[in-house]
Here is the input.
Amino acid sequence: MENETIRFEPIGYITTGISRREALPRQGINGNLEGELILYERFAAGAADIKPGEEYFVLFYFNKSEGAALYVPKRGKGVFSTRSPERPNPIGLSRIKILYNKGGKIRFIGADMLEDTPILDIKPVMETEGPFA
Here is the structure.
């Protein structure tokens, strides 16, 4: 199981107009950068019930990551306790707020991804009460 390979098929890509990591907000939820999730046509029906004002998690592939590190010297921490894009499996997770959804083009606020970032999945934020509710 240790050498198992897992493959994912992107469901679309993200547009933000930002091509340099330095130009992105440190954390999308703390910024006001807008972006758009562009879903491939065969996946667009899966977003039919996404509505303005709702919050979602977007899982994406750090396709422009520059290698993997297990330790982040700038933070003095192991990579799994940070949100660094340089990780063994370059998967990102961001919380976004929907502005509009027009047939597979979903405008949102809270972008912290580069232009043309592949989307792996979109999941609703489920507000709960108490730990592990």
